[in-house]
Design a protein that fits this description.
By secondary structure, the chain is an alpha/beta fold. The protein contains nine helices and twelve strands.
């Protein structure tokens, strides 16, 4: 079944301050949507609110994944429903190895009695790590502990490859990556593109979109999506910045206070 993710009129606050002021977006399976915008316009807030971060309160609107009300679900239920977030700043978890974390995450999405076998998991993990040019030793290190910024980002993509989600949100996955790592991460994303999966990529720069071609590019300002277009929109933003968008739409130069 083709995936369909619909966000309608989504508003969200943090510490009683409204950050998202009515987000409307529809992502279908096979589509890649990119959101760009200046710092402080609410891009990362959107990602966190959709995944159920307790710091963000959704005050209005809806988000449905294949007809199911995402906002009524707990965080773990959203993950089991097929949501995945590659975070801008992945957390370190001491005492939990990367492989143990990954296998637990996979089994959490399976029914009891249908857990992935250890041998099958190891084979899948090793194959995906090879695709991402990751040192096999990383499987036995504590989750993200002592990882460089680029290694953490590759590890997020490894999780995506193994969990096989329906909607993938990449929050500045290109941050801190050198060009070789960027190409590897992009190849991992491109290999996952299918009618059963949609992508929402949050980025500041065109360079990631040189390797992952989006179907739609959206400009976010002041907690709203104010302009949408194709890949050419990202290129114009790279060349000219955001001032022309503000002038075209009569937007006052101010932010909402969150990334």
């Amino acid at each position: 079944m083709s995936t369909k993710f619909v966000i309608d009129g989504l508003k969200a606050t943090i510490d009683n301050k409204e950050i998202l002021k009515g987000i409307n977006l529809e992502i279908k399976g096979g589509e890649i949507h990119a959101i760009m915008g200046p710092n402080g316009t609410g891009k990362s807030t959107l990602a966190s609110a959709l995944m159920g971060h307790p710091k963000y309160e959704v005050t209005e609107g809806s988000a449905e994944l294949n007809g199911e009300d995402l906002l009524e679900m707990e965080v773990d239920e959203r993950a089991r429903a097929g949501m995945f977030l590659a975070m801008q700043y992945p957390s370190e978890i001491s005492g939990v190895t990367n492989s143990d974390f990954l296998r637990s995450a996979i089994n959490a999405r399976r029914e009891e009695g249908n857990e992935i076998s250890l041998i099958k998991f190891i084979r899948q993990m090793e194959a995906k790590m090879k695709e991402l040019d990751m040192n096999p030793e990383f499987a036995h290190r504590y989750l993200n502990e002592g990882f460089s910024g680029g290694e953490k980002k590759r590890n997020e993509i490894l999780q995506m490859l193994l969990l096989d989600p329906k909607i993938v949100i990449l929050d500045e996955i290109d941050s801190g990556l050198d060009i070789d790592a960027l190409k590897i991460v992009a190849a991992g994303v491109n290999s996952m593109r299918s009618e059963e999966r949609g992508f929402l990529i949050i980025t500041h720069y065109q360079r990631l979109l040189n390797y992952i071609t989006p179907d739609y590019v959206h400009v976010m300002m002041q907690g709203r999506i104010v302009k949408s277009g194709g890949p050419e929109l990202a290129q114009r933003l790279e060349n000219e910045g955001y001032d022309w968008v503000k002038e075209e739409l009569g937007i006052v130069d101010e932010t909402v206070g969150q990334a």
